[in-house]
Amino acid sequence: MHEKKHNLGAPKVGLVLTGGGARAAYQVGVLRAIVELLPDKSRNPFPVICGTSAGAINAASIAVAANNFSEGVAQLEDVWSNFHVDQIHRSDVVGVTHNTLRCLLSLISTEYGQHNPVSLLDNAPLEALLKNRFSFRAIQHCIRSGALHALGLTAWGYTSGQSVTFYQAAREVLPWKRAQRLGVPVEIGVEHLMASSSIPFIFPAVKLNREYFGDGSMRQLAPISPALHLGADKVLIIGVRKPVTDEPKRTSATSYPPFAQIAGHALNSIFVDSLDVDLERLLRINETLKLIPSEVFKQNNVSLRPVEAMMIAPSEGINEIAQNYAHTLPWIMRYLYRAIGAMGPNGSTLLSYVLFEAPFCRHLIELGYNDTLQQKTELLKFIGVEDKAEKNGG
């Protein structure tokens, strides 16, 4: 069966879904709004889909349902709207206690740690959920039908120190290799999702071929780059952090920062800081290219081109929202997180990444939905579709 082309002649819009643990529920709200804004029975508007960490799970969910975009988003929302932490990791007393003892044993026994995956939490339930929810064979079917051009999921190799994008794509997409990052063609499976979403320390690393891999957000210096390598002409990025507009106030510390506060800052640097830098770099390159006459590019056979980018990010601080829903966690998890300082204001950043509970996720979905509607005109123009309300004379 020959591959059909996706909207032949139209720019390929790439969708970039960043990491962020439970914060990725925000992305679902954005996607729900996009479904409502698109004309009825529209095809998947994102032929190139890239995801990292929890964003990889959302990306794969959209990709396997690329032939029915609205249905894929509806299924994704159903999962996130009914989430409980026990679907992500073991949160029962026996499971938490057993995993904690394993962590302690690994600290005193080097041999034990070498042969047993060690992490704060046991995410076996997530693997079972993904196996149950995804039909990975549908990815190639969507590529052949033309509803999908490429899906890329990024993970980080603990041995090589490289950021690896595992991708499944149309035949014309070629592997790439850049400094500390490369693209590798594979048949996407649950193991790639587990590797990309294995938050360091919290979830165990996953062995793919001959190397162990962890969360793809680690040292991902160019989060937008995989989408461009996979053929995107423009990129829509869905972030998981409110843009920082003011310098933070500097105050005198009265006590040593709790573990959760330090861990929260570390996760921020892993999940969101590199995206801000990469987007700023892309916009700066675009401005520079505008100053160079097109004849210069032709004479020197230079293939550089401006890449249009749009970002949708939370209008509210997710840390503060997380604090309001901390009580929804199972008591054993509240006890564990309280012990490391995650239940207080200074630990709310870490809490926002691990709060996989329905009330918190639903709040983020609604936030993403409303934030997207506020950018309706700009978004529709970016995707290249006509406003349904204007088309109907509304």
UniProtKB/TrEMBL annotation:
InterPro entries: Acyl_Trfase/lysoPLipase, NTE, PNPLA_dom. This is NTE family protein. One of its GO terms (molecular function) is hydrolase activity. Signal peptide: none annotated. The keyword Hydrolase applies. The keyword Zinc-finger does not apply. Keywords: Hydrolase, Lipid degradation, Lipid metabolism. A motif (GXSXG) lies at residues 51-55. Residues 15-228 form the PNPLA domain. The active site is at S53, D215. It holds the Pfam family Patatin. GO terms for biological process: lipid catabolic process.
